[in-house]
Design goal:
Length: about 140
């Protein structure tokens, strides 16, 4: 598995560049790898199964067992799959670059949630709260 720090640097590069040079497959694979970190941290072997045709969704299901707050990233995983499908089903679409950029941002969002949850288990317990990981105060 790629270290989280390397994944963060790669995703930040994709998000901040004027033109995202990552393929849809690469961004989906990064999302899977993020979830592999979560599953591994819970002492499990990451699944190779697919759910609704995607390993990402199977990894999310595996990672959320026994931790209901992990469901906070379910829609993020689904959105990542949605953008993957948009890009791969219409690679010549005039907005394919915008779609790639959006997929990079969604991948980064998933990374931020999971890496934050690895630091603070309570993250996601209350979906509308935004807590600073360093001092547990509410941000508005």
């Amino acid at each position: 598995m790629t270290p989280l720090a390397d994944m963060q640097q790669k995703l930040e590069g994709f998000v901040t560049s004027a033109q995202c040079d990552a393929s849809a497959a690469e961004l989906l694979a990064l999302g899977e790898e993020v979830l592999e970190h979560w599953v591994t941290a819970k002492g499990q072997e990451p699944t190779t199964d697919k759910w609704e045709g995607f390993r990402l969704l199977a990894l999310h299901r595996q990672g959320s067992k026994g931790d209901a707050s992990f469901n906070a990233c379910r829609e993020t995983c689904r959105e990542l799959v949605y953008h993957y499908n948009l890009i791969t089903m219409e690679p010549e679409h005039p907005e394919v670059l915008q779609r790639q950029k959006m997929m990079a941002m969604v991948s980064n969002h998933l990374f931020l949630f999971v890496s934050g949850k690895l630091q603070a288990q309570e993250l996601g317990d209350f979906c509308c709260s935004s807590r600073d990981l360093n001092n547990d105060r509410m941000e508005i």
